[in-house]
Design brief:
The chain has 13 helices and 18 strands. The protein has about 400 residues and is an alpha+beta fold. The two termini are about 15 Å apart.
Length: about 400
């Protein structure tokens, strides 16, 4: 029965993979984590953690540490691209915490990664790029690119959009290019106008938009600037652009945007991809988690949160009395599939909504924003533990 300790091999040491490792260790399982990277670094920029993700991080014992290195965002604001006029604002902070079951944090991806590494009882095995997965009724085997192999009772693919484990589970499929890329960067707060009052900030304009928020207690301002670009197809967190290219892409925008983009020292740029939802995530011994299972565009800010929710559900079902390993993996998939699919598809639609030209369509969108808190409560206020309790 899967309530006995399992040997679990996780491919991928990102936020989802480490959250799963911690959750599984808390249930008494033996966990090893493997990653193709040769070293762990603070690559990337900011991520948003909502109440739904923070509920799980609190349960894993890392919520306090995350709060200590993050910024608790006190308001959400939507601004006009040219004038910077606020056309919708709503409090967050205590209001959000009480309604959604946890705070809304802006946190540097590297800081969140370190919080999880500090909690994980072990060290990820680096330089291990998964090349193939094999399984039989007794277990599973990961074959790495260097020819080494490891055995486990369960293999979890948390290896992202271009997951090697996904290929084993679901066969070949193609990443879907959104014909959009994003500039990402971090700017010292003192170089960004109005940074002292900045919460979760959206700048919406014709054909492009920005999402801006503080991290590290307000020390830095994180931005993601989205532009249509069918020719930039490189999907890599390490790819770079020139700050001048970002400034040129937003010529004519308001002073906050131009000042921020002009003062960034290093700009990352990558193309945005997702994949069509999978019909199955799991075999009897292998399953997927996070972007490997349901890669989503960032326009709902839920990628990390959904991977964290996955981690809680996977650990619960692999530890449930009376379920075989195969049954536990199937129950995990069944619980998670509909929710993640809905968020994945919603993320695709949000970009067009955020990038409307001035005029009646944008006015109609702005009017709909008045009901935003109610419209996103099913995402942010979701309690994975309540859902798990109901499935028992």
């Amino acid at each position: 029965m899967s309530s006995a300790p399992l040997r679990v091999a996780i491919v991928g040491s990102g936020i989802g993979g480490l959250a799963a490792a911690i959750a599984l260790q808390a249930k008494g399982h033996e966990v090893e984590v493997y990653d193709q990277a040769s070293e762990l670094s603070a690559i990337g920029a900011g991520i948003a953690l909502g109440g739904n993700g923070m509920r799980v991080l609190d349960d894993l014992g890392v919520g306090r540490a995350a709060r200590d290195v993050a910024s608790n965002l006190q308001r959400i604001q939507f601004h006009h691209w040219q004038t910077a006029e606020i056309f919708y604002e709503h409090p967050m902070g205590d209001w959000y915490d009480s309604k959604m079951g946890g705070p809304f944090l802006g946190i540097h991806r590297g800081d969140m990664h370190q919080v999880l590494l500090d909690r994980f009882d072990g060290t990820p095995h680096l330089g291990h790029r998964a090349a193939a997965v094999h399984e039989d009724p007794g277990g599973a085997e990961i074959e790495f690119a260097d020819g080494t192999k490891v055995q486990a009772d369960v293999v979890v693919g948390a290896d992202g959009l271009r997951s090697a484990v996904r290929h084993h589970v679901a066969g070949p499929d193609e990443a879907v290019f959104s014909a959009m890329s994003c500039f990402r960067g971090l700017v010292p707060a003192q170089k960004v106008p109005t940074s002292e009052s900045m919460g979760l900030t959206f700048m919406l304009g014709p054909g492009r938009h920005l999402v801006i928020y503080p991290v590290r207690g307000g020390e830095l301002i994180n931005f993601v600037a989205y532009v249509p670009d069918p020719e930039w197809t490189l999907e890599s967190w390490s790819s770079k652009s020139e700050p001048a290219e970002a400034v040129a892409a937003f010529a004519g925008w308001n002073d906050t945007v131009i000042s921020m983009l002009s003062n960034v020292e290093e700009v990352g740029r990558w193309a945005l991809y997702d994949r069509e939802p999978l019909r199955k995530w799991s075999t009897d011994r292998v399953t997927l988690l996070g972007d490997a299972a349901h890669p989503m565009l960032p326009h709902a800010g839920q990628g990390s949160n959904q991977a964290i929710e996955d981690a809680a559900a996977l650990a619960a079902f692999l530890s449930a009395d009376g379920l075989s390993t195969a049954e536990g993996l199937q129950r995990y998939e069944q619980l998670r599939k509909a929710r993640t699919r809905k968020i994945q598809m919603g993320s695709r639609g949000n970009a067009a909504c955020f990038q409307l030209p001035d005029g009646p369509p944008a006015d109609e969108r702005n009017a709909r924003l008045q009901s935003l808190p109610d419209n996103v409560a099913w995402i942010h206020g979701y309690d994975i533990f309540a859902d798990l309790q109901e499935t028992k």
